[in-house]
Amino acid sequence: MMRANIRHVLLHNSFTGRLILKDFLQKQIRCVSSTVLTCSKKVRVGFLGAGDIATLHLEGIKKLNNTELVGIWSRPNCPIIPEPEQRAKEFGCSLFESAEALVSSPDIDAVFVLTNYETHLEYAKMAMKHGKHVLVEKPAAASCDEIEQLIACAKETGVKCMPVHNYVYEPSLLRVKDMITSGKLGDLHSIYIMYNIYHPEDICAKLPGVIKQIGTHHCYTALYLLNEDIPEHIHAFTSTLREGGVGTAPQENLAAITMQTKGGAVVHLQLSFASDDHSSDPWSFYVKVIGSRGSARYSYNDWVVNEKTLVHSHTYEPYPHTIAECDRHFIEEVVLGDGTPLSTLEDALVSQKILDAAADSAKSFQVLKIE
Length: 371
What we know:
Low-confidence stretches: 1-39
Helix content: 40-55%
Order of helices and strands: HHEHEHEHEHEHEHEHHEEEEEEEEEHHE
Mean pLDDT: 88
Strand content: 15-25%
Radius of gyration: 23 Å
Largest sheet: 7 strands, mixed
Number of strands: 17
Strand order of the largest sheet: 14-13-7-12-11-8-17
Structural class: alpha/beta
């Protein structure tokens, strides 16, 4: 392309043509210089939190030549990580004695907040106020007010704060998004986002409930596919079910949410820790989009390894891939490239509003307007 453009300019053998050529070459040189500078910088990362999700982010970082994990911090007496020194050794990095020590370190450029969501606001703000770029796990914070504080802090400090909305970094969903945006699917009529992966009751007892635990994934994915057509009304149901009767864990492990957008499209969200789906076309994690001129689908079960992972009966390869691709986008596009996330803190805020409305609807058995 560059050779073709130069040839086109040279055909105009005039003073104006020479000026255009000079300007064109200068722009190309600046572009190449910028790329070399960006690629030469090593982004030094610190983890706040060193649980299971940290291992996936570590694998993502290892795939990046321009990034290294400098250190981790794990809260004292954490039952998940009883020996943080051993964890740091496994990760091949330093162990910081406190969160403050990590975020204030001059040897760290960016901080991954991987702690329980109730602490996200505290640690993300702490890191941003020390001038660190932040990647914060989902949900970005515990409430709408807390997410608004994250947005305000990022603007005030001038650093980047990106939520781990990893599902939208899956290549298949990027293709679906392109089909919607380009108009190939016509008017958007329906979106189905389904999740059915069994979680034992002892695991469910440690989680906040299926809506808060994975509902964020459903919501930001729906918003990503809807573009600007924001959901307006919502109706939700929840249950706590186990084989043979109602479970003893108080958190809901099954939920169904239906929303109608301002443009009239209907979005169906289904979330279940109650059972696996091993049918011929399983909805382990499944997305289907139907428009007036076409449709598209995406399924975890197109990429399965027959090995158990954590609570999952199978290893669903797309999940770790989306984490790695989310990390890559944060480092290369947002931190180094000064770009924007595919899904932002503003999307996290709308997602939280949807989840709050879903919880209220499930309690009242009413259709509610999403504020």
